[in-house]
Amino acid sequence: MRRSALTVALGLCFASGVHAQSASGTVFGQATAGETVVVENAATGFRREVAVGADGSYRVPQLQPGSYRITLQRADGTSAVREVSVNLGTGTPVNFTSASSAGATTLDSVVVTGAQVVNPIDVSSVESTTILTAAQIAKIPVLRDATSVALLAPGTVRGDTAFGNLASFGGSSVAENQYYLNGFNITNSFRSLNFAQVPYEAVAEQQVKTGGYGAEFGRSLGGVVNMVSKRGTNEFTAGGNVFWSPDSLRAEVENTYYANPLVPGDLGKLRQDNSEDTLGGYSTSIWASGALIKDTLFAYGMLSYSEVEQDYWGSVVSRTNNHESEKGDPTYLVKLDWNINDANKLEFTTLSDKRTTTTASYLNTVGQVNRGPLVGTSYTENGGENYIARYTGYLTDSFTLSAMYGYSEFSRSRRLKTASGVNVEYGGDLDQPASGCPVITDVRPGYRTSVTGVYASSCNITGGSIDRIDSGDERNQFRLDLDWQVGDHALGFGYDRDDYESIAGTSIEGGRIWRYSTNNGPDRTANTTDDFDVVREQIVNQGATVEVNQEAFYIEDNWQVTDTFLAYIGARWDTFENKNGQGETYVKIENQFAPRLGFSWDVNGDSSFKVYGNAGRYALPLTPSVAVRGASASLFTRQTSRFTGVDPVTGAPTGLFGTGALSYINGEFGEPKVADTIASQNLDPMYQDEYILGFQMSMTEHQNIGARGIYRKLKAAIDDNCDYTPIMAIEGFTFDEDDLTWYDSAGNAAALPSAGFPYCRMFNPGSDAVFLTDLYGDGTLKATTVPGALLSPEAKRTYKALELFWDGSWDKYFFQASYTLAYNKGNTEGGVKSDIGQADTSVTQDFDYKELAVDSYGYLPNDRRHSLKVFGNYSFTDEWSVGANLLVQSGRPINCLGVLYPYHGDIHPYGSSFFRCGTTEAGGADGPAEAVPRGTAGRLPWTNSIDLNVAYFPNWAPGLKFKVDVFNVFDNQKVTGVTEVAEDATTGAPLNTYLVPRSFQAPRSVRFMVQYDF
Fold this sequence. Notes:
Blueprint: E1 25-30, E2 36-41, E3 46-51, E4 57-63, E5 66-73, E6 79-86, E7 91-93, E8 128-133, H1 134-139, H2 146-150, E9 156-158, E10 167-169, E11 178-181, E12 184-185, E13 187-188, E14 194-195, E15 203-211, E16 224-229, E17 237-245, E18 256-257, E19 270-272, E20 278-293, E21 297-312, E22 320-328, E23 331-341, E24 344-352, E25 355-363, E26 374-394, E27 399-411, E28 414-418, E29 423-424, E30 439-442, E31 465-467, E32 472-486, E33 489-504, E34 506-508, E35 513-519, E36 532-542, E37 544-560, E38 565-579, E39 585-602, E40 609-620, H3 625-630, E41 634-641, E42 645-646, E43 653-654, E44 663-669, E45 686-700, E46 703-716, E47 719-721, H4 725-730, E48 734-736, E49 741-743, E50 761-763, E51 769-773, E52 782-786, H5 788-791, E53 797-809, E54 813-826, E55 858-859, E56 866-875, E57 880-889, E58 916-917, E59 930-931, E60 943-952, E61 960-967, E62 975-978, E63 997-1000, E64 1005-1013
Parallel strand pairs: 1-7, 11-16, 30-35
Antiparallel strand pairs: 1-4, 2-3, 2-5, 5-6, 8-15, 9-10, 11-12, 13-14, 15-16, 17-20, 17-64, 18-19, 20-21, 21-22, 21-23, 22-25, 23-24, 24-26, 25-26, 26-27, 26-28, 27-32, 28-29, 31-34, 32-33, 33-37, 35-36, 36-41, 37-38, 38-39, 39-40, 40-45, 41-44, 42-43, 45-46, 46-53, 47-50, 48-49, 51-52, 53-54, ...
């Protein structure tokens, strides 16, 4: 009998009973004690026999995703057969007892048809998971990358464009997720804002864990994207395809206009002309797989190449425009599987995702859209090599061992080349800044909008900093996972080691910034004859090799308390150790305890109705990026001079005279910092607690529904604080405003700042901090306990959500729908800061001074109150099908960031970073500062988009496929991000750039595909 739904082919999967980073699946069920269950995969020759336990249960873990035949061999010589699909990270129920299928049709065979969309209702689990296979993804109009597929899951929203193509899970920041391939962590942990780009043609299944995951997972407060690659079988297959997205069929991007009503003279004027912007590209892949030795040794390999070309002009005040081309070295993935025997398997995966982005910058006439001479070209390298080896041993019927070792390297290198062919790069030496032309800024009133005078360099390429030429990361990861069935208990325990090393650093292109301004002269009055021009030289160099060493132990028990009730008990102990550029430990958090609890109730006893819940604690380490500037040697200097002239090409001053003293900023002298002074001695990791309660049930043989409630609360955050005045007050120092020095009661001067007295330190916002400080620069460290209330308020972030699901599958049609009502509130987004696009993970400006946190509590950037997602496919003949993908979502909250009245720039040099607006009137006269608490300056508009595709599989040419995808069919280009800085950092005057759009929905585009499978 056929049954394509009900415990086999429907429902969002909620599974956690599978260990070893869920790179495999499990079959479990009920039968008669003493009988034998045989699990076979005809495609690979895999075969395993297990005896049914005394309690009538059996369980076969560590199965590679695929189709399996499950055979029950009875004592009387008869047998029963089930045919099922095993998916990534899930448990598939296969029962052979009549009692277990009470209320359902008695089956001799369960056949999974091509209509399968998601996994069966897995009553052996407590976690929240969405799984899509390669076949399903191919039928949906969705971009072929891990983030776009993850965004199909409920509880996910797209992150701010400042951080690239990343998703936010359950109200967390985009820097709090983890990404895996075949059990190996492919997250780029330097800032946790990137991950290895797996060629998507090689992905067999993608699992999205949005909450409640078991103790074998850690180092994430957001979500987990878990992928497994395709692999070889006994059947030889090969193929190739081409995807093409022509710019000619892409809709024109919306222009942006000034939108601040407080600057009426500019309101509605053009800010950014996008009429000449272009974007198009293609990708092509070939693959082959098969058995090198039948039933024993298998291989899968694919090779992919892609190119993306785009032009973008930027704002009308930009001095350059750009042509960008991204070309990967041919990316590839190779997967080898060796079934040594029925009890031992060995796997090997290698992945390369190297790619180079080439950006040619051209001079642009300010206020126009034109292309002048080439200034220079930037070459940015990303990606690298990954190697993964994994052994699985079925040591007994009830005991399985998995061991994985992986190594990866990732490049973040950047170099420049001038139009004349001269290389510009930074080697990482603090004393040798980057070569090339300097960055020029000019804030003299007469030159602010003029194209004459010292407006900019005509040979500076980037206008900012470049990464050192050898920037990159290396990871060594080892896992040992053990799975042991003991009666009613499925025990999992293991060890996880992850060592990450980063070479990093930046320098300003040309080595320095020259900043021109006007000095008001001896009379200190502006616009008088005593005024004279000055130029300030600023040099900022960083460079270090830093490390993070992480290890964890975990244990978990899936306890089948009764035939219908499963209890999950888990615990994890994490240790995080961060080292600076001198190899010294500046943060070490040992054995952070993370308990996990959950239950799953199979209400009807036939996997048709499940009630489940869980509670857990999750911890996040500091990223390596924190140490490059904050804990290692760095250089930051400023020096002001007068000048007689300006180089007409570089914009650098000539004839310097009247040079002032050299000042070191933030205590960055180019010398190593004292590691013990960098962080609070009682630092806790960033961690949160999560609670989930939900149900899932089969409405009919072809439809499932479900709901769950989620509550997440941030319990501790890690950030930096730069206010040293509480330490000085507690230690009895007073400040002399004449010589700008701190003195103790005996008249001894403090060495502030110094290598042992850092400008900023890591702490847990709102908690008491114990800082070690070299107060006098004599090498003696003094411990000072600073009450949390003197540094900042407590870090707060909560996420409350209700998720509703409905999905169905028939022979020719499938769909999945979800609605999420969510509230994301707090005073910190987390690792990054979307308000201003700050990507300094773990060291945002949120808590640098407690004044910055005033009125910062409110709805956060990832708060999307309403989200409706519907996608599916209909095959109306065996040759034609159509697919659709609908997203309707409410907009994010808007802030109004201004200066702290009355202009505390001399105390806290953060300009317009406070939740205050209306500090001055347009003419510059003082006006009342108004509190504008976080998220109360309005909301961005609702967005909606419909994507459609049509596929044709001609009967006259078996294996040939054609498909056309149209994204954002109705070309809705609503604003998805605006500039939230409302006031000038120096004067407090309203900025005309406030509320100018930073991003829109992607315009309508078309993608063509041709594929042939042998």
